[in-house]
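User: Fold this one for me? It's Acetyltransferase.
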Amino acid sequence: MKLILIGQGGHSRVVEETADQLNIEVIGYLDDKYSFFDLENDKYIGPIHSVPKLIDLYSDIKFLISIGNNVVRKRIVERLNLSDTYYLTLIHPTAVISRSAEIGAGTVVMAQSIVQTNAKIGQHVIINTGSVIEHDNHLGDFVHLSPNATLTGGVSIEEGAHVGAGATVIPNVGIGSWSVVGAGATVINNVPNKCTAVGVPAKIKVKEDDTFVQHQ
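Assistant: Here's what I get for Acetyltransferase.
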């Protein structure tokens, strides 16, 4: 298998080291900071629209969008319009994954993370270092859990939501699509779509006219 990383920043370096520990060869990087497709130091580089060239070159090619921003990951997936079979699911060898868990294409599970019984994780999700996903969690596509986030049992995280470092979500709580849970927050109530929840216990703020107001 040959792996191409889409995006070349800090997150991609962590992804590449994870791939290396699994003996998966990263043969190049696609990023729109490059203006042309080339081979440099035995690695392919080029803009994102170079994907078809690499598919033509290799029958066993896989891609992984190694960009932390949820919105950008979704835009790239829509732009490329590839079959799910072209995306690699990458799981660090120190992660603990239940046999009954389901993990979608293009998702990355980082070191020391735990995914428990009957958890269902969507596509192009980032499960960062030391995160805990307890039993019966449901995570939509393009979700991002920052390091040491803890989702207790029965939590639902909708598409594109971001749970900050060290945050905790209590059992059976839902986080709406494209919402943000701040670092260190403790979420004890449902968070609506496109909101921010911060503090202990978390207070919910709704975005109105580019400002945030506390949600009653």
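One thing worth pointing out: Residues 90-214 form a domain with the UDP N-Acetylglucosamine Acyltransferase; domain 1 fold (CATH 2.160.10.10).
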